[in-house]
From TrEMBL:
Its main location: nucleus. Residues 232-266, 280-341 are annotated as: Disordered. It comes from Neodiprion lecontei (Redheaded pine sawfly). Involved in ribosomal large subunit assembly. This is Ribosome biogenesis regulatory protein. Residues 305-323, 331-341 have a biased composition (Basic residues). Coiled coil: none annotated.
Amino acid sequence: MDIVSQVLEKAAQDERLRTTEVQKHLEVEIDEGSLLAVDYNSFDTEKIKTNREDYFKQLTRDNVQLLINRIWELPTKRVDEAVVATLPKPRFVLPRTHRLPKPKPLTKWQQFAKEKGIKSNRKRKSKVTWDEQLQKWIPNYGYKRTQAESEKNWLVEVSDHADPTLDHLSLKTTAKQEKRSKNELQRLRNLAKAKNVKVPRVGIPSSDYYQDTRQIATAVTVARSSTASVGKFQNRLPKEKDAKNIKEMVPGSKKNKQPMFKPGEEVKRNLGFVDKILSKRPAISIVSNPSESQNRQTDDESPRPKKRSKISKKGGKKPKGGKGKRDMHTKVGGRKRRQKN
């Protein structure tokens, strides 16, 4: 408690800091293990109406100060120039945001080992072992394990009754791959068992897995179309039909296939395309005789005669204006005005 008293005395000397003493009508319930403070005092409604934010900030500061005062009363120690308090076990049970995780189901081997009382010593095993044949340490798994096996098993012992024409080294490699595939299949079966999925021993899933006939039809259609020819050369059962609405699942299928044309419909369709193209291009004419097209080109290139005005047909010239001068002795013009009686 000497460290705590020293810190509090040093903080009390600073005038800028507030006091650590907080007065409450009802005692605040504090759980040091959960760092939780529960205040049962009623709110001041007048302060909430006048200044809501400042009131709640002051209330929060007082409750946190009480929690820190209680933490300083716990046994403390100094770790790397820092004062650390040892918290007790929590007394308040906090609610969980998520449900408790379900226990992971045991695999087939784990269930068998549990029933028989077999204990695994995997943690006690070393990562490397000493090999007398290679006279060096080789890994039991992982990095450089394959290289060590190829150096060690470069020669395979064969019995007298074995076929000498066979490649026993490749047969051993194939057997290892089959064993690996078997282990992978067993792992997938364990996952299916954990998720309550019924998986058949052989063949396609049974009717217990496919509750609807449409699911079976979908599986058959996808399996038949999963070839290089997209099921073109695969035989069909009598009255077998393709499943519907699985075009995105079938490889190579087109969603918008054009229907087959009947005799004569293809010609009409092509002529419709030609008419559509020609209607968009003006001044295009189709001529069967090339000489006619040449004559039309020469006619188009010749200059066109100019239109004659109506005045030239009458033979007279256009009269000119008098330019604003008028001789009253020689020429009498103008419109006679009617006199009013």
